[in-house]
């Protein structure tokens, strides 16, 4: 904007202090009015050039400066209240947003004023400059910005000085008046009245450097969204994605349900849970690590309701909690959608995954080719479908089918691959593998996963790492399971659901044995590298007897899928870190 281009931030502390002195000396003779009423409009007033000796604010405000500024602004609050004005208003009636004004009056000619317009806006002051007989301020709301144009000739001396003395950058104000386009073409609200709606006590980040401290951006997201308006756009996109997912599910006849966050057993995935204690019940409870098992219970129970349409398809959008590592891809709490459909298999879920992602892309971008960190991603259907075995063979030359159940030979072959160094965490994980399927998965994660940039369904996972998936109907030792990868990241996980209660119990028991063996192996190593590893096995895994009982009542053939909403939003907002798309991510304690 014209005012923003011209303005250079003055030293906030010096400026604010000088204004307080001016206000204090004039307080005996001036009567405070926060509503400025303009007389006749002047159309030929030209804006003055910006003085060249204005100093920039430093990139970061020191603690002592912050405290001084806060003390000055608190004094202004006291002065306002002492004169009968409340600096924290109850409401403000506005007629337009800044974007609406920009669109409605874009036709005005340079220098033209629309006196018949009576408009009112509200927003935060993000820039101001005062010189001569003019004060320019820039107001931002959640749709954009507009300039406020205030002339001394249209105000009393008292009003003009009050405007300059009591308004600071960061304040939220309401302003009303007519519309003017300046001689240089800047659409402005020609201010006639204003009120302080919220008096800001702390200074905003430096205009030129912004809030660049990444850690501070995540800790103080409220400041981040003030300093970096594009951040708010990420969360608008996130809201669109969640809304579009719901619309998609409803269009296919799915019913949204809710399942417990606090659970008696942590199931549905292999992950370290958060544990809490319920005082009244005198028992440990777990924050859920997946919604899967309760959604399946829902599918079982709904079968008792006869002649009720639509109850064979259920889904839940909710938070998941895992007490594991933090990275650009992982946050201890994250959002997923899990869905289950009776009388379908994992082929149905592949189609559903494509449908959801494609609809979300169209809703947010209007096209199926999106840029992610410099790479163009094509979401046009159909997406690539390959088995895990074929992808590993393509990347390493090793055909794991030849090993049968010979896990030691599989380990030897894997250790010969470049990238798996002796003594590394990967080597340790490989050594603790209890089956060929586990070795295959380790090799896949090391050599294949990061190469799957374009949308790819990886099919037919080993049974040893898929305890909840149905055995493959054509290939022994495999399951009807897929994971969806985009940009080298897992976006979704799905399978034809295991409905045989005896097989399910056996799988769970084997999973517990494998977990305990891995736990013992890790306990022997106790290397520094392993501490805090997200694959740490120090937690206990128990059978969920209630879920197994529900299966014995009979669960219909079904398919299910979980999609990571955070990672999908990362893709559609070109965000490098999961913390960019979670409003308040979990962070380390500041030292």
Features:
about 600 residues; alpha+beta; eight-stranded mixed β-sheet; five-stranded mixed beta barrel; disordered N terminus; metal-binding; tRNA binding; aa-tRNA-synth_II/BPL/LPL; aminoacyl-trna synthetase
Characterise the protein shown here.
- There is one protein chain.
- With 591 residues, this protein is of the alpha+beta class.
- The protein has helices at 2-6, 12-26, 63-82, 98-104, 157-166, 214-219, 221-227, 229-251, 292-302, 346-365, 388-396, 407-415, 425-431, 436-447, 501-525, 545-552, 565-573, and strands spanning 113-131, 134-141, 144-151, 172-181, 187-198, 255-256, 262-263, 275-278, 283-287, 313-321, 333-342, 369-372, 375-378, 384-387, 456-459, 481-486, 489-496, 558-564.
- It is elongated, with a radius of gyration of 31 Å.
- The two termini are 40 Å apart.
- Pfam families: tRNA-synt_2, tRNA_anti-codon.
- Residues 45-67 are annotated as: Disordered.
- It comes from Panicum virgatum (Blackwell switchgrass).
- Its EC number is 6.1.1.6.
In terms of quaternary structure, the protein is single chain
The residue ranges in which pLDDT falls below 50 over 5 or more consecutive positions are 1-60, 306-310, 528-534
Main structural class: alpha+beta
- Percent strand: 15-25%
User: How many strand elements?
Assistant: 18
Distance between the termini: 40 Å
Judging from the principal axes of the Cα atoms, what is the shape?
elongated
Output the number of helix runs. Answer: 17
**Spatial strand arrangement across the major sheet:** 6-10-11-18-17-16-15-14
Mean pLDDT: 84
Pfam family, one: tRNA-synt_2
Catalytic activity: tRNA(Lys) + L-lysine + ATP = L-lysyl-tRNA(Lys) + AMP + diphosphate
GO biological process, one term: lysyl-tRNA aminoacylation
Region (Disordered): 45-67
